[in-house]
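Tutorial, part two.
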Amino acid sequence: MYCDEALNAVEAVASGDVTPDGRLADHYATCPNCSSALAGARALEALLRNRAVPQPSVQFTARAMTQLRRARWRSDQAIDIGFNVAIAAVVLAVLAGIWVVLNRLGMTAVSHDAVSAAAGGFATLAQRIGPSLPLYAAASALLATALVVWWWAERDATL
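Running the prediction step on this input gives:
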């Protein structure tokens, strides 16, 4: 047996995790360098066992869990951003593919007519709805005010 094998096992033997077998025990008995390393490791183990264990602060668990949640949230955010970028790239690739197919088939002229017809329809819709927008805004504000007052009254009733 070589000293490097015995020195690699010193910590495990000193802690009691490994019982030295015949070759290892013989080496520790005959090699002064390895036996002194084992004695030092055993003395250190005994010192550590006899040392008082400090108690963590009361907030230790809460702080540790907060840091873990924050780290996990950051990693989840990075994954979410990567996923969203990948989805956006796929959507752009699909749209580009549709545009290439429409362009090759000569459908771009038809699509320009469809866009102009839709724009004209939206313009007509905006002209018809435009005069009624202040009325809709006032009705929405009145409804929102009623909901806030109702929420406020219910909140005070539960206290």
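The helical segments are 3-8, 10-15, 22-30, 32-50, 60-105, 108-129, 133-158. In part three we will examine how such features are distributed along the chain.
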